[in-house]
Amino acid sequence: MLELGKSGSHGTGKGAVPVLSDGAVVATLHASNWKEAATAEVGERSWAFGKAGRELTGRWAVDPEDAVRLRARQTSYWNGTWAVELDGVAVDVTSASRWKGTHRYAVGGRQLAGSGTTGSWSPRPTLTASPDLSLDHAVFLLWVELVLGRRWAAAAAAV
To answer: Which helix (H) or strand (E) is 97 found in, with range?
Structure first.
């Protein structure tokens, strides 16, 4: 299971959020507090995540600004469904629990990953992934979960 740690913990610098697997740092995420954007360090590779129109996108940091390797777009607000594309592979995202804000990621009906949360006062996203999901893709999905959690929190605060 992958989870986002607390900012600045596990030896990461200020503003860096560790991505943990069994308590060990496997990647770092630098998420913006004001925009739906982030940079991620996964192994030797740097990723740039952001919002382009209605889509959440991911590209290698060295790619041109308009290049997209990973994308997520909402297909139904009422059903809470999303369509994700991971390097050309279509992934269906459905709501596992509207109450908990968790999602199920599937490819061709086979579950690829499931999301959850850890912590109570300030929950952080978790992702339980199948072994064939790459770490790069899992970090993107964790960032998508972080963005969706922030959206839900902002909507709840506005009511």
So the answer is: strand 89-97
Rounded-to-integer distance, Cα 16 and Cα 41, Å: 10
Q: How far apart are CA 2 and CA 19, in angstroms?
A: 7
DSSP state of 99: T
Cα–Cα distance, 142 to 139 (Å, whole number): 5
Per-residue pLDDT reduced to its tens digit, 24-58: 999 999 998 889 999 999 999 999 999 999 999 99
How many Cα atoms occupy the beta-carbon half-sphere of 105 within 13 Å?
Answer: 27
Q: How far apart are CA 71 and CA 105, in angstroms?
A: 14
Note the pLDDT tens digit of each residue in 66-95.
Answer: 999 999 999 998 888 999 999 999 999 998
Q: How far is CA 34 from CA 38, 147, 148, in A?
A: 10, 11, 14
Tokens of 62: 């060295």
Global pTM exceeds 0.85: yes
Cβ–Cβ contacts within 10 Å for residue 18, how many?
A: 21
Residue 99 is predicted with a pLDDT of 64
Contact 12, 18 (CB under 8 A): yes
Q: Which residues pair with 85 in a beta bridge?
A: 71, 90
